[in-house]
Amino acid sequence: MITDINQLDxxxxxxxxxxxxxxxxERVELIKxxxxxxxxxxxxxxRSKES
Length: 51
What we know:
This protein is mostly beta strands and 51 residues long. It contains one helix and two strands. The model has no long low-confidence stretch (mean pLDDT 84).
């Protein structure tokens, strides 16, 4: 089982079967067998339209 993203060879192609066994906190996408790190998702607070 992969528990750290550094255990992966980023030059290798992976399958969905590989992907579902990974147990690390980093968010990644698997596109055409390649691993891509996802950018952090931030929610911006809405600003009031009052002047």
